[in-house]
Amino acid sequence: MPETVLSGSALLARDRGLLWHPYAPLDGPAPYAVAAADGMRLQLEAADGVRFEAVDAMSSWWSAIHGYRHPVLDHAVGRQVERFSHVMFGGLTHEPAVRLAEQLVELAPDPLRHVFFADSGSVSVEVALKLAIQYQAAAGRPGRHAFLALRGGYHGDTFGAMSVCDPLDGMHSAFPSLPVQHFLPRPPAARLDGGGSLVSDGAAVAVWTAELEAAVARHGHELAGIIVEPVLQGAGGMHAYSPECLQALRRVADAHGLLLIFDEIATGFGRTGKLFAGEWAGVVPDVMCVGKALTGGYLTLAAVLCSATVAEVITASEFRALLHGPTFMANPLACAVASASLQLLETAGWQEQVRGIEAGLRASLAPASGLGSVRDVRVLGAVGVVELHNAVDIPAVTRAALVQGVWVRPFRNLVYTMPPYICTPADVAAIGAGISAAVAEVHG
C-alpha cells in the first residue's frame, strides 16, 4: 500500500498535543512542517498553510555542515545499510568504528589517543565526567568527584551534564537532586582583531584568573576536573572569550592534578575557524567531547577522546574499564557516515569555507548594529550573532525571517546563525540580510 504524504497543515494538526518539541509545551506555538530538505534549503509549511523555501541558517542545530542530501554522505549510509545497520559493540568490533576512531585520533591534537563512542553530545559529557571520577579514584583520590565549570556554560540535558551547566540560566531549579558543582564567573569577552587573533581586556583576564586560582585553592580537594566549552560558549549565550583563560585553566589543572575537559560538541570540526576551538589557545585537554557536526547531521553520534596517560590510569584501576556501555555505541551506520563526513570536511577545504562565511557574515550582519533594539553584533568563524537588549519575540522573528527566505531559531535575546559550510557568498548575504530585516521589522 503506497504511503500517503500528508499536507503540512494535516501533519501539524496531528502533531499538536501528541509530540513534545524541545523546550515547548504540548499546546505551544505550532512548529513548521518540513516537506523537503536539499542542499542549503528547507521547504516548510506553516499552520496557516503558507509555504516557505528558506536557506537553513542553523545547520539543524549546528550539525548539518555539508547541507542536506549530500551525495557522498548518502552513499556512505546506503553502502553500510547493504552490509549491516547495527551490531552490539560489546564483544564485537567493526570496520566503520575502527576507521572513524583512527580518523579522530589523526585529527585530534597529541596526546589524545583513545576513543569512546557515545549516543549523543549529552551522553558524551556524562562519559567524560564519569571518566574523570574514575581517574581520580584510580589515582588514589576517591574524594574527588565534583567539577568546576563556567557560568554561562551549557553541556547538555542529562543529569550530570545539567549539573555543570549554568546554575541560574540552566535547569537547576527544576531538578533539586542534581549533583552540586562549583562555578567560575563567565570569562571575559573577546573579539577578533584585525590580525585574526581573539583579544580581550588584559586586566579583566587577570582578575578572572585570580578567581580561578582562589576557587581551586578552596575546592581542589573535592574536584575531579574542570569542564568548559573552549573559547565559545554556545547555548549559554554565544559568548566568545579570551584564549588566555584556557591557558590559565591548563596551568591550574596541572598544578592540582585535575583533568581538563573540553566540550567541543558545538565548536569542533571548524566552526570557530580552528579545527578544534582549543587551538585558539594552543591548549590540549586531557579529555575532549565531540558530536553535532561529527556525522554531518545524518545520525546521532558523539565521541570522547582522552590522553594516553588518562587511559593508562583507568586500565590499571580496580575496574580496568570505563564504566559505560550504550546499546547503540559505535552504531555502524553512524560511524560510516561520520567517517565520510570527516573525509569530506578535509577534501572540501573547510578552512576556506569558514573564512568565506566569516567575511560574509561580517558584511551582511553589519547593518543590524545600527538598530535601536540591538546591543551587539559579533562574528567568529562560521558563527554570527545579533544580541538584542531584550528578549526576542521568537515566533515573530522566525516568521519574519522566513518571509525573507531564511530559517533561524532564536533563543533568549539572541538571533544567531551557524550556517552549513557549503554556503555560497549569496547564501551568506541572504542570511545576514534576512536576520537584519527580521530584527528591524519585529524589534526596530
TrEMBL record:
Organism superkingdom: Bacteria
Chain positions of site Participates in the substrate recognition with KAPA and in a stacking interaction with the adenine ring of SAM: Y23
Indicate yes or no for the key word Glycosyltransferase. no
Keywords assigned by UniProt? Aminotransferase, Biotin biosynthesis, Cytoplasm, Pyridoxal phosphate, S-adenosyl-L-methionine, Transferase
- Where is this chain's protein located in or outside the cell? Cytoplasm
Query: Which cofactor is essential here?
Result: pyridoxal 5'-phosphate
Q: Which residues carry this modification: N6-(pyridoxal phosphate)lysine?
A: K292
**Pathway listed:** Cofactor biosynthesis; biotin biosynthesis; 7,8-diaminononanoate from 8-amino-7-oxononanoate (SAM route): step 1/1
The reaction(s) annotated as catalysed by this protein in its Swiss-Prot or TrEMBL entry are:
(8S)-8-amino-7-oxononanoate + S-adenosyl-L-methionine = S-adenosyl-4-methylsulfanyl-2-oxobutanoate + (7R,8S)-7,8-diammoniononanoate
Q: What does this protein do?
A: Catalyzes the transfer of the alpha-amino group from S-adenosyl-L-methionine (SAM) to 7-keto-8-aminopelargonic acid (KAPA) to form 7,8-diaminopelargonic acid (DAPA). It is the only aminotransferase known to utilize SAM as an amino donor.
* Subunit composition and interactions: Homodimer.
Name of the molecule in the record: Adenosylmethionine-8-amino-7-oxononanoate aminotransferase
The organism named in the record is Arthrobacter sulfonylureivorans
Could you tell me the gene encoding this protein? bioA
